[in-house]
Amino acid sequence: MVPLISSIFLHFIFIFAVVVNGEQDSIYEILKAHGLPMGLLPKGITQFEYDDTGRFEVHLDQACNAKFESELRYDRNVSGTLSYGEIGALSGISAQELFLWFPVKGIRVDVPSSGLIYFDVGVVFKQFSLSLFETPRDCIAVRECAGLCQGHTEAVLSVAFSPDGRHLASGAGDTTVRLWDLNTQTPMFTCTGHKNWVLSIAWSPDGKHLVGGSKSGELQCWDPHTGKPTGNPLNGHKKWNTGISREPVHLNAPRGRFVSASKDGDARIWNDSLKKCVICLSGHTLALTCVKWGGDGVIYTGSQDCTIKVWETSQGKLIRELKGHGHWVNPLALSTEYVLRTGAFDHTGKEYSTSEEMKKVALERYNKMKGNAPERLVSGSDDFTMFLQEPSVSKRHKVRMTGHQQVFAVDSSPVGERVASGGKDRVLKLWMG
């Protein structure tokens, strides 16, 4: 205890010397002197005020976003009160969770250091590795997309980010898919081939292939580097497409397979290279509403027959049927959703030279995110309920969640500890656990 107190006392002497001897350092050195990483603030800050009470205010040229494990948004003015290992009364920084932004009220590190840093976002402390914030990051100016991402002539019905987060695909009622460069927020290509509304889009895990599903039931594949179709439309479904999900990269080489769901009551597994259906998953008695390819190698389908079915993917056999909902099953979400969608790609932007390297890294990310817990599935229904389930463990739901009217949308946070839901009642709810 005595060495710790002495260490903190010496740090306070240094802090006092920094601000009193008439040679105030940069804001980054002041953070460092308080036992905090310099990368908490973006690169290039020269305008700031700091007094001997620990109160500081920094001024940026414009509001901007910086990418860590998740994204941080900095207002033009950021202020707070510094004490050793902590920033209190913080204002001007927000952290992204799913599609929502939460104001960061305080930041702290452990003394002595545990290698972790904690962001107080009101309802919980978000935990990050301290190493992410070692050096100040570039900060990209916040732009509004509305004036830059125009081009479709009918309603936009589906969107999907590329696995590396650099591009966006959008499908619309004008029968086209448009590809966008997110760095410039400008259109790259207009992909044609569909004859009806584009209702679903999915990228291959390596980001080199794209597939869309339409109201007519056909599927169309494109090369997103050229915007050109790769083969003829894939036919088989008799009614419109209600979802597409890719086989995770850690289970197969990039491209691999994908599964499509349809209003006709079937799901179909397609071989991306052969461009043909290899397995038809039949068993539901009414239309399919959603489909997910899980990280443990099974497929989940939700239906208007009020059930969720779990399928193995080598022969298409039914493994388990999950019952309990009293009306249509609308959306499904997996606790592993984020890491399955991004595969081997993370905030570092690393690129991979071989598919085996990509597969190995994706498996490591999946296992780290999942840990020892089973993959969890959240379902939303027209019966005003949501179920949290662990299908590999039990047929019965683990938690029943109520409070909505009809539930139309659910999604899991990147690390799986939260679920967001929306429904007919026009209310967005966040669930912990």
UniProtKB/TrEMBL annotation:
Compartment(s) of residence: Nucleus, Nucleolus
GO terms, biological process: ribosomal large subunit assembly
InterPro entries in UniProt: At5g01610-like, DUF538, WD40/YVTN_repeat-like_dom_sf, WD40_PAC1, WD40_repeat_CS, WD40_repeat_dom_sf, WD40_rpt
GO cellular component: nucleolus
Taxonomy, superkingdom: Eukaryota
Pfam families tied to this protein: DUF538, WD40
Gene3D superfamilies registered for this protein in UniProt: At5g01610-like (2.30.240.10), YVTN repeat-like/Quinoprotein amine dehydrogenase (2.130.10.10)
Span of the signal peptide: 1-22
Swiss-Prot/TrEMBL keywords: Nucleus, Repeat, Signal, WD repeat
CDD domains in the cross-refs: WD40
SMART domains found in the cross-reference section: WD40
The protein, known as: Uncharacterized protein
Organism field: Corchorus capsularis (Jute)
Lineage start: Eukaryota, Viridiplantae, Streptophyta, Embryophyta, Tracheophyta
